[in-house]
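My current task is to audit a protein record that another person submitted. Alongside the sequence sits a line of tokens, each denoting a local backbone shape. Where you disagree with what is written, explain briefly why. This is what I was given:
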Amino acid sequence: MSASRTERLLNLLIALLNTKYGLRRSELRAKVYRDTTSSDVAFGRMFERDKGELRQFGFDVETVTDQGWGSDDPATTRYRIGKESNRLPDVSLTPEECTVLILAAQLWEHAALGSAAVDAVRKLQAAGGLVDAELPVGVQPRIRPAGQAFEDLVAAMHAQHPVSFSYLAGSTGKDQERLVEPWGLGSRFGQWYLVGHDRDRGDKRYFRLSRLTSAVTVLDKESFTPPAGFNVRAELAALAELPVQTAVVDVDQGRLLGLRKRALSGPDAAPETGAALEAGAAAEPGEQPAAGRDRLAVPFRDAETLGEELASYGPRAVVVSPPELAAAVRRRLAAAAAFAAAPVPEVAFPEAGRAARPRKRTSEDQLKRMLQLVPFLVHNQGLHISEVAARFGITRKALEDDLRILICSGLPEGYPDDLLDIQWDDDHVFITQDLDLTRPVRFTVDEACALLTGLETLNGLPELAEGGALESVTLKLMAAAGEEGLKAASLSGPEVAPGNSATLETARAAIRSGAQLHLKYFSPQRDTVSERDVDPLRLYSLDNTWYLEAYCHVAGGLRNFRLDRIEDLTPNGRPSAATASPADSFPVKLFTPNDDDTLVVVQLAPRGTGLADDYYAERTAALPGGGLLAEIRFGSTDWLPMFVAQHGGMVRILQPATLAEASRQWLAAALTQYEDLPDRPID
């Protein structure tokens, strides 16, 4: 969609909004399109495409016909858009409700719903219903969806298109091609699930996104109708948790402290449970561990989840039993090794830094933004142009391009007063003629889902659920979203409550009072436990994994500590030294890059492109086939082989060459431990 088409659609919208009786196709062709060269058939196709575009933006193009003779004649058919056509109703929010709403919008960090949440908030700002709110200390939860597959499935689900993908069947351990009508996406037991109709099997099925072994293909030429009243949260609530099993794992002596703490038997086993189950673990078949290794019995529910962790340990650990767990580990290691051995693409990055992710119909964003921009300016007269650009997340040049299109748009063949009138000569933006674009359109399905699912997720935090603001803002948004709000039942977020609420409350109390904390912290990358004094700054989360951002006096800088890895946390009796403040941006970065970090170039497979965002890539470049090159700073490179193995074929190291070779050797050493394993798990 070119700039000229954007301007044409905007003029068509203004014309149809500002006619009482409707405009005939011939009038629109002459006055809006100024089309004198194309055939009637070609113009008709263009007009139908444009009407479809306006409907996608939420405007219902009405068809008006005269009664009596000739009423079916296209030449006499008139078109218009009602003044109230799909406009966002007025939504008045209290400061407390705004706080909750902003937290809900910020839940979606990188996924497509993140941009949808931003658009929804902008619409509320444009309508004048959102006031500035201060976020509470220690309550900044976020959701990290399951990669590119999540985005593709959300798009297909809302457009009601079936999808196909390759799926690792739990019963056979084999990849199978699936053709599915996606009904809903939700998180349960720490995993994302797709619920839908499997066309090949003719029944409802549950698919765990971590078992998808290919990219999702959307069949946009086909459609389906989901069941009436479908609610994915209710569906997943009936899903039984997998039973606890025991894995037998041989590990290097003195290593993998985190795994040892969870073990039921063996050296350094958890004392409260080890004695009760040691006999059962000892009865596992197999020879004694090799010299220099300990045998651990580790409880688990899901082979894929534990397999991801054990694969990251590489040659430091080998699975003795059960066979399906060993197969899950080997499959990840083999995929990582195969990717590492594939031909290396040319490493070249754009001079501008991060490459824009490929997106369909990106010029739609410009028209959507302009439809938000006009009502925003109406309710925020006189803002500095740089502040307006910042509010919309674009450069000043891009904003000025938008404004130049807007001031050339208006009623067909109208006088100067019939054009949008916007001035910014003194760098302060004023609008004096808005042509009935004073209110944004209703929420899209994605926007309604992003906000309403976020609000539902926040119910897991008691401090937000109390006071009534969460319930009242949910009711207001449901009323404003209308039918689109009902479709939010197709999406359900994960639990965000922390596993250790006592540690969270200790940290929050220290932040409020300005007290310094002493902590014992386990680092899986270094495989050590250290003690530190820290000045706590703020808390935030990814799903139900919470982090403490603090100034560490040992490291001499800002660090982020996972609460579930803090073994002890107590005030040390000293006040915070006030040597640092929280990072300015939100969301908080898990990794703070330094100038002396190692720049690493990695290649990301199509399923792993989201890792560029997770690890704050400084530069990216798109590759043929949908993958990415990414340049990322790492403070420590020793754990990079673990990183590669964990993601099983989604990432490999290209530069520096020494790190790439070390990773390949590490993967090869890990794979030799599984040489005698059958090709697939035993049924």
Observations:
- The longest helix spans residues 323-341.
- The CA atoms of residues 177 and 332 lie 19 Å apart.
